[in-house]
């Protein structure tokens, strides 16, 4: 069995209640589909730090605050 892979995803909502979704890149897994933004957590960072980093790297979004919503294991 391989080691567990931890990923984070964010539900970002603006003051008008709109939710930010990201479209997956062409040519990759599930290309063109929509997802909540996020990515893989590095071994030395918390889930919150990983989400802030991923939002900055992938979307150029600067997150001010985040809090856990749900944790799922499978």
From TrEMBL:
InterPro entries: MutT-like, Nudix_hydrolase, NUDIX_hydrolase-like_dom_sf, NUDIX_hydrolase_CS, NUDIX_hydrolase_dom. Its EC number is 3.6.1.55. Residues 3-74 form the Nudix hydrolase domain. The keyword DNA damage applies. GO terms for biological process: DNA repair; DNA replication. This is 8-oxo-dGTP diphosphatase. GO terms for molecular function: 8-oxo-7,8-dihydrodeoxyguanosine triphosphate pyrophosphatase activity; 8-oxo-7,8-dihydroguanosine triphosphate pyrophosphatase activity; 8-oxo-dGDP phosphatase activity; 8-oxo-GDP phosphatase activity; metal ion binding. It is an enzyme of class 3 (hydrolase). Belongs to the Nudix hydrolase family. Its cofactor is Mg(2+).
